[in-house]
């Protein structure tokens, strides 16, 4: 039994798409296919029905998904509990955007707050953080989206304006830029928008590609004047002041704000409560 294969299986089960799963796992599509084939051989049955580009789980595949979630949850909880037997550990998942903009300069505050506790920080995208929280791998999460699992609570702690930017000067868009025009731009999707905003902007686009590590697109923008991206205003204050990035206003659409949520168990430990309060204090001081 290989837990990495089961994790891959669960991601494919949710995505129903080999290409997207390969991107999410940072693996080749052939590796994803190989892992699923190995699982089908191990269990002696077909887990997915592949027909004309569609992918649907079989009854056995649905059953395996339930067992796989339980196995991974049990394994992750066992790591946490065994670790706690020696020293209490708190596992925090955080989006790259929140860490880069707000937490990087303040993270030492969390470490110094509980010297007898091991603080573990994991940087990832919101989807993976929420999945890791639900599986018991993380104690606290800071994401762009709330968590809907019953055992956890989500509270919005911050929001920021989103800005359409490019490093290039595009005179044709300086005075008039519509949502129709945006859908025809070479736009980098930083995966920071809420689902409604994603649909408004990225559905039926002529050209776009995705970067899960949101703010990493800043460097790409600065070296490629033809590209545009939608980024949190706080993350590009310096670039806007230096005019290495240029803002463009959409005249018939208001970009939604990017939200930040803190997610934790409805029954957090005392030390988790201390960490949560410190994160909220950091946000309040911004």
Characterize the structure shown.
- The protein is an alpha/beta fold and 286 residues long.
- 45% of the residues lie in helices and 21% in strands.
- The chain is built from 12 helices and 12 strands.
- The model has no long low-confidence stretch (mean pLDDT 87).
Q: How much is the average pLDDT? A: 87
What is the fourth-level CATH superfamily of the largest domain? Periplasmic binding protein-like II
Evaluate the radius of gyration: 21 Å
CATH architecture of the largest domain: 3-Layer(aba) Sandwich
| Discrete helix count | 12
Shape: flat
CATH topology grouping of the largest domain: D-Maltodextrin-Binding Protein, domain 2
Task: State the strand order across the main sheet.
Answer: 4-3-5-12-6
CATH class categorisation of the largest domain: Alpha Beta
Helix amount: 40-55%
Strand runs, count: 12
**C-alpha end-to-end distance:** 47 Å
Low-pLDDT residue intervals, each spanning 5 or more residues: none
Q: What does the largest sheet look like?
A: 5 strands, mixed
How much strand?
Answer: 15-25%
- What is the structural class? alpha/beta
The domain tally reads: 3
Listing every helix as H and every strand as E from the N terminus to the C terminus, the arrangement reads HHHEEHEHHEHEEEHEHEHEHEEH
């Amino acid at each position: 039994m290989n837990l990495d294969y089961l994790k891959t299986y669960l991601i494919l089960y949710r995505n129903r798409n080999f290409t997207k799963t390969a991107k999410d796992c940072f693996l080749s599509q052939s590796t994803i296919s190989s892992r699923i084939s190995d699982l089908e051989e191990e269990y002696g049955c077909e887990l997915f029905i592949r027909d004309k580009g569609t992918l649907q789980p079989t009854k056995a595949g649905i059953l395996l998904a339930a067992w796989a979630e339980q196995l991974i949850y049990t394994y992750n909880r066992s790591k946490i509990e065994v670790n706690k037997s020696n020293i209490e550990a708190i596992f925090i998942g955080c989006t790259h955007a929140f860490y880069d903009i707000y937490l990087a300069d303040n993270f030492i505050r969390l470490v110094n707050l509980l010297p007898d506790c091991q603080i573990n920080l994991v940087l990832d995208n919101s989807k993976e953080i929420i999945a890791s929280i639900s599986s018991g791998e993380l104690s606290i999460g800071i994401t762009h989206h709330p968590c809907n699992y019953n055992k956890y609570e989500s509270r919005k702690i911050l929001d920021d304006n989103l800005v359409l930017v490019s490093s290039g000067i595009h005179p044709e868009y300086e005075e008039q830029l519509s949502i129709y025009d945006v859908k025809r731009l070479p736009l980098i999707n930083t995966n920071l928008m809420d689902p409604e905003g994603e649909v408004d902007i990225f559905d039926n686009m002529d050209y776009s590609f995705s970067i899960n590590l949101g703010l990493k697109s800043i460097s790409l923008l600065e070296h490629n004047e033809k590209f545009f991206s939608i980024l949190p205003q706080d993350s590009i204050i310096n670039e806007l002041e230096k005019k290495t990035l240029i803002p463009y206003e959409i005249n018939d659409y208001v970009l939604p704000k990017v939200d930040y949520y803190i997610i934790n168990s409805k029954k957090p430990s005392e030390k988790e409560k201390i960490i949560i309060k410190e994160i909220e204090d950091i946000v309040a001081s911004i």
